[in-house]
Specification:
419 residues
């Protein structure tokens, strides 16, 4: 009988010990639930904080006991409690170990909780970890630690994969870290959502593709943006810029006309129209250099002049809207100047016995030079440090045989080149 009583006593002791450890798990849960219910009010914040401390003490005991250490609930509660502690702690040195413990515990909880009995606790805990990483990422981004911010925001995004702010912050940090593939991936995801600033995201996306030397997808992304936001002038201008870079002058004129229909007072669109015609003229110069037949050369010359004239008309429209538009003044002066240079060079190639023809060609070039002068001078006045503006103006002075002003302008150019 004594042996049986002893055995019964031992069994009772084992049961009591197991119950005690399960009691710690129960205490951890009840105290954590108490914390969750009270933490939203300043009046009860102190009580909530105390409950969280008690919950930590109990979950540490439960996690240390072999009877409860491997339970899914233990890992879930430990993850939740440590996640809450990490969010509360504003000191990185002490909060990061709390975050790491919480993250590791939640991973194990998800692995073990095959029935989903602790799903709500796990999900709520991950929201705290997401908040922790968001706060951490903002601080890192502000300190220009863009790569670290990207990883912090990316954790936030993995917890909330459809949260548009999470996607945007991750893409933005990646872009600043020059991690273009990651930035492109996130921005491509963002434009499929209802994010309120997606027109700007399409602009950023095209810039990222260009930075990644992918003009094809840069043009594709901005064109998709225009399809969704047809009245957005910034997207229209970007499409034109990329089209010009890729040598699609003819196609871009149609796009500009469509853009001007939507925004007829946009000086920049007229400027880009002029730039398109200018570039078309420049491409003809290359064809002229290759042509051997005089008739073909003359045809190309006329095409070049026609495109310069069309460019001039567009630049003038831009200046009607803004007379101080530097780029339009600069380019208008140039496209008027170019035919003058042609006439001047042609005159100087004439033989000595062609004095009459020479005089006529010089007179023609002088008249054309004078048409360009107001715009050349205006551009140099608007931007005295523009080497392009000063070079064009010096060309005018040389063409007019005004050596004094040509030399003075050259000194300004040399001074800028020496800076």
């Amino acid at each position: 009988m004594k042996i049986k009583l002893l055995m019964a006593g031992l069994l009772g002791l084992v049961s009591a010990t197991t119950f005690a450890q399960k009691g710690e798990l129960s205490t951890a849960k009840s105290e954590y639930d108490n914390y969750e219910g009270l933490r939203g009010s300043k009046a009860t914040l102190a009580v909530a904080t105390k409950s969280l401390g008690t919950a930590k003490t109990s979950i540490d005991k439960a996690a240390a006991n072999e009877k409860t250490a491997a339970l899914p609930q233990t890992f879930a509660l430990k993850g939740a409690i440590y996640a809450a502690l990490a969010v509360q702690d504003t000191v990185a040195a002490t909060s990061l170990p709390l975050f790491t413990t919480a993250d590791e515990s939640l991973k194990k909880a998800k692995e073990l909780d095959t029935k989903g009995e602790n799903k709500q606790v796990i999900d709520n805990a991950y929201l705290n970890l997401a908040q922790y990483q968001l706060t951490k990422g903002v601080a890192e981004y502000s300190a220009q630690k863009y790569d670290q911010a990207y990883h912090s925001f990316d954790y936030y995004r993995t917890v909330l994969p459809e949260d548009t702010n999470a996607i945007y912050y991750t893409g933005l940090a990646a872009a600043n870290a020059k991690n273009y593939p990651a930035a492109i991936t996130n921005y491509n995801k963002l434009v499929t959502t209802k994010y309120s600033k997606n027109a700007g995201v399409y602009m950023d996306l095209s810039s990222l593709y260009l930075a990644n030397k992918d003009t094809t997808n840069a043009l594709k992304s901005v064109s998709e943006g225009i399809t969704k936001y047809p009245t957005n002038s910034d997207l229209r201008k970007r499409e034109i810029e990329i089209s010009l870079q890729t040598g699609k002058e003819k196609e871009v004129i149609q796009k500009i006309q469509a853009a001007l229909t939507a925004d007829p007072k946009n000086k920049t669109l007229y400027y880009y129209a002029g730039l398109t015609y200018s570039q078309t003229a420049e491409s003809i110069i290359k064809e002229q250099a290759k042509a051997k037949d005089p008739a073909a050369k003359n045809t190309l010359q006329q095409q070049k002049v026609d495109n310069y004239n069309k460019a001039a008309d567009m630049y003038k429209k831009a200046l009607e809207i803004d007379p101080n538009y530097f780029e339009a003044n600069l380019n208008l002066g140039y496209v008027i100047l170019n035919p003058a240079i042609d006439s001047y060079n042609a005159a100087n190639k004439l033989p000595a016995n062609k004095q009459k023809e020479y005089d006529a060609a010089i007179a023609k070039s002088n008249a054309q030079f004078d048409l360009a002068k107001p715009y050349l001078v205006k551009a140099a006045d608007l931007n005295p440090k523009s080497i392009d503006a000063l070079t064009n103006l010096r060309t005018y002075y040389l063409g007019k045989k005004d050596n004094v002003n040509a030399e003075a302008t050259k000194k300004k150019i040399d001074a800028l080149n020496g800076q």
